[in-house]
Amino acid sequence: MRVTIGNQGPRLSEEQLRDFEDELTVQRLPESYRGFLLANNGGSPSPDTIDVPNWRVSTDVAIFFGLHRADQYWNDLRWNLELFREGRPIENALPIANDSSGDYFCLELHGAGAVVLFEPFDFENRYPVAPDFDTFIRGLRWFED
């Protein structure tokens, strides 16, 4: 199934993305996620439903965060990273999206870059969603009643 992205952020350059990686102190984000940022720089996916094993049956991906989203700062990667880390000892996790309830989808910044979910008031538990970003995108589906 093809996923389309609406409400994309401003076009990113390779240099802007490398600067962000330097801020994160990672050598390089996973290639599939880098490609997503360079092509879309965040936005709203369609379809937008994702299954989260061992949690609720499914939820939505309301928005992927992007860089330099001054028009919508609440959709900015840096802003969400600061908010996510505020007072929480969570390392090696980059918030890349959220659902309509404010739960965070995060990319683990080690290994293959698994995608996990954190609830906003329960950062003790991480719920694995996909082993990598490509699998996460391929897991998006239409909502079924």
The tally of beta strands, per DSSP, is 9
> What's the helix count?
4
CATH architecture: 3-Layer(aba) Sandwich
Task: Provide mean pLDDT, rounded.
Answer: 90
Distance between the termini: 19 Å
Description:
The two termini are 19 Å apart. With 145 residues, the chain is an alpha+beta fold. It has a single domain, classed as SMI1/KNR4-like. It is 25% helix and 27% strand.
Provide the descriptors you would attach to this structure in a database record.
145 residues; alpha+beta; SMI1/KNR4-like; two-stranded antiparallel sheet; globular
Describe what is shown at a glance.
The chain is of the alpha+beta class.
Per-chain topology:
Elements: E1 4-6, H1 14-24, H2 31-40, E2 44-46, E3 49-51, E4 58-60, E5 63-64, H3 77-85, E6 93-98, E7 104-108, E8 115-119, E9 122-130, H4 133-138
Antiparallel strand pairs: 1-2, 3-4, 5-6, 6-7, 7-8, 8-9
